[in-house]
Amino acid sequence: MLNGETREIEAGTTVAMLVTMLSADAGRDPRGVAIERNLEIVPKSEHATTTIEDGDRIELVQFVGGG
Fold it and tell me: PANTHER family attached here (predicted)?
């Protein structure tokens, strides 16, 4: 589940890979996101080593700046 919607991804996909993929699809900067996996925040330092497993619930929040 990604932001409440079912989404299939390849086995072995890490949080960092998912962020890069989604950011490229949306044309957004991947540095401005926060990831929650199964109700726990995934620190940016762990994005590259955290593999998304079958049944995980992922919430991705894009930070938006303004003035």
Answer: SULFUR CARRIER PROTEIN THIS (PTHR34472:SF1)
